[in-house]
Amino acid sequence: MRELLADKFRTTLSLAGVCIGIFSIVAVFTVVDSLKESVNEGFRKFGSDMVMVERLPLEPDFDQDGRQRLWQYESRPQIGWQEYLFLKENSATAGQMAFSASFEMECAAGRESYQEGAFVAVDGDWRMMVKEKILQGRGFTSGELAGGAAVTIIGSGVAEKLFAGVADPVGKMMTVGGTPFRVIGVFAPAGENLVSMMDVDCVRLIPVRFALRIADIDSPTLKNRITSISHQAPEGRPEPISKEELKSELRILMRQHRRLRPAQEDDFALNELSFVAEQFQSVFGMVNKVGWVVGLFSLLVGGFGIANIMYVSVEERTRIIGIKKALGARKRVITMQFLAEAATLSILGGGAGIALVWIATLIIPDTLFPICLSIANIFKGLAIALIIGVVSGVAPARRAASLHPVEAINS
Asked: Can you give the pTM of this predicted structure?
């Protein structure tokens, strides 16, 4: 430490190189790991065996010229309410089944009106699509869903706009197209979510049978209409049903209901969240590689800085090295001494870089996902710094150990 402090400016420059390199690498590791955990947690909420019957596929479809064949899907019919009832009645492999239809309509409460977000009409096991916690009130009962009760569960953004200053909006009345309906629950604020079926903060969730009274949800002219039927394979059976069996049965039933001939292609899509998860994994890998490239360039500069300061240190202490060797110090002792100095220098720089990452995690707000510096990334950063220090110090240490005692003393 005394030798490192002898030239503070030179030592600081060397520390800065290692600090920037470790900061770059650990920062990328931290962001990618936090993002990955947030996305994986989102997919875990919905389950890995969920299959959605929708109009458009999630996976891009390209022609021979590399253009996406969106024109093929424009003529496809939307997934309808009657198709959901048909699947619900005839499916033998689906354990849970839910229907959702999203459409835009203006609603009001008193003098305030709300146009953002969408109405989402649901039926069946709707909780498999909306996992967010209900902060106030309750969810739908089976009787309300079956009878088409004029009730709704609203998002926090809707509650703030229509019922500003009201501590508990549950029980309050709203209107849509002149039809009154009652608030029975308010979702907890969800904010921006990486994995979500809908914008929960702006949603007005209603039973499908009530939606049929205020809008024609099967009409192709309804603005921004999105319908989806979600299924999950049942659990607890002696012989569990695979996702492929579920998809095969759904395809057969949908083709049967739409009376498609054997030669005709499917005019619907069976989507899985696993495809989206795989796309996220590829993005994570790409970001990791970019972080490694940036960090390694920075570490290269830091490594040269450490090698430089160690070479200078050997030149300045040549006489001391000669005296030590004359007194019996072996090459291994001299080598380990300079390697320890190089390792100490790199560990200090790495620790400073990790400290900067930790400070950044405290400053950056958790907008899309929480960012957390893990113990694994701390040890990974320190290990990389240690390796850089040892590798950079090998050549100067070997030079110091190879000095002849008499020549060193007389230098």
From this structure: 0.65
